[in-house]
Amino acid sequence: MHDHRSAATKLAVVAALAAAYASARLPLHGQPAPPSSASFQPASALSARATFQSSDLYRLKSVGDVQMSPDGRRIAYSVQNNDRPGRPYSQVWILDVATGKAVRLGSDQEAASGPRWSRDGAQIAYFGREESGAGVVVSRPDGSGAVLLAPVSGTNHPLPSDGERLAWSPDGRQVAFISATPGPETENANGDPMVITRYLYKPTASEGLTRFNDNRRLHVFVVDIASRQVRQLTRGDYYEHSIEWSPEGGEILFVSNREPDPDRVFNYDVFAAHAASGDVRRLTDTPNAEYRPIWSPNGKMVAYLGTRRSLTSSETTMEDTHVWVMDGIGGSRRELVSIDNRQGQPQWSPAGDSVYFTVQERGNVRLYRMATAGGAPTVVAPAPGERGSVGSWSRRSRR
User: Fold this and answer.
1) pLDDT of residue 18
2) Residues 124, 145: contact at Cβ < 8 Å?
């Protein structure tokens, strides 16, 4: 059983390289990528070509956000492009594992990102643009039948919120997503003169449209696919992100800073919102930060990333994160494995008896598996003694 799970995980890791190759050949919308005539050539032939030029930087592409379908037959991924003026933009592709053919979701000129499979693999949700606007889009795996479900707004708030932004309900009838709403300071902060009342008045470093925090707050929303009705699940002057819908469908995990002065005291904790009523309960109340919670397959445990030391300000976000586990009500909290290196996004095995995660090691990033019952962690890829870095990875959710 362990060998089977390991093989499935390795397939998704290797898929990132296959996806990069397929995405370099941009076919028409909804059409399979054309066959390639590329082949490996000896170093002497390559050296005879022109050397790398600065203009070639615009032709480079990077692949990330690899998402394997539940049956393991397809892999969704995003491709970052730099081939036009302005900021880099992302596109979403789906690779057929058996044939190696890839199709792009959305049009050639529009950006798309964040693909996430429904639990039965029949649909895929992502952030994209259709004729009716931009926001949460749902389509079939081949890119057909794309429908805009709900518009989405963002914020230039400077603190990190890079967890999951989309989450499917177990029955595939609803999608939870993160979007921004105006905060209490927004109106005055846009006036003349501009009134600044917040400690974090500057935006994220990548923001190029304004010099000030737009004061918009991130909240959890839910959209019904059939009716396209949108309802706001969480409210208040908070920033919520990193969502995960529970296996039985009753709750949605999220991360938020609920400190009295969140601009000065940076402390992310894990919460759960009732999917129907929006009632919120707290799972962690620690002096350190938690990120990226994920339910176990049976909904009885939660794995997440967390830090160890007490936090005082946004400057303490640089501490290495480690993988932690706790039960579904926030008890029995413990660090999963004793590895004193930065660890990345955890994912449960299909059986729920182990957790996969990445570890930064001496210039490499390796994928590990650790049993929740204890013991020694196992390296999945790259193998011990080999050099390499796992950038984005995924595993199939069906046994």
Assistant:
1) 37
2) no
In sequence order, the 6+-apart residues with CB closer than 8 A to the CB of 223 are: 136, 149, 150, 174, 175, 177, 229, 230, 231
Question: 302 near 295, Cβ under 8 Å?
Answer: yes
Strands laid side by side in the 251-256 sheet: 240-245, 251-256, 269-274, 280-282
54-14-41 Cα angle (round to 5): 50
Contacts of 182 (CB under 8 A, 6+ apart): 215, 216, 217
Euclidean distance between CA atoms 254 and 93, whole angstroms: 27
Whether 176 and 243 have beta carbons less than 8 Å apart is answered as: yes
For residues 281-310, average pLDDT: 94
Answer yes or no: are the C-beta atoms of 349 and 399 closer than 8 Å: no
With helix as H, strand as E and coil as C, how does the chain read?
Answer: CHHHHHHHHHHHHHHHHHHHHHHCCCCCCCCCCCCCCCCCCCHHHHHCCCCCCHHHHHHCCEEEEEEECCCCCEEEEEEEECCCCCCCEEEEEEEECCCCCEEEECCCCCCCEEEEECCCCCCEEEEEEECCEEEEEEECCCCCCCEEEEECCCCCCCCCCCCCCEEECCCCCEEEEEEEECCCCHHHHCCCCCCCCCCCCCCCCCCCCCCCCCCCEEEEEEEECCCCCEEECCCCCCCEEEEEECCCCCEEEEEECCCCCCCCCCCCEEEEEECCCCCEEECCCCCCCEEEEEECCCCCEEEEEECCCCCCCHHHHHCCCEEEEEECCCCCCEECCCCCCCECCCEECCCCCEEEEEEEECCEEEEEEEECCCCCCEEEECCCCCCCECCCCCCCCCC
Average pLDDT over residues 332-342: 93
Length of the chain: 399
Calculate mean pLDDT across residues 257-270.
Answer: 90
Structure tokens at 337: 């494995």
Rounded to whole angstroms, the Cα distance separating 169 from 222 reads 9
Compute, in degrees rounded to 10, the torsion defined by CA atoms 281, 231, 171, 393: -70
Its pTM stands at 0.85
In the predicted model, is pLDDT for residue 97 greater than 90? yes
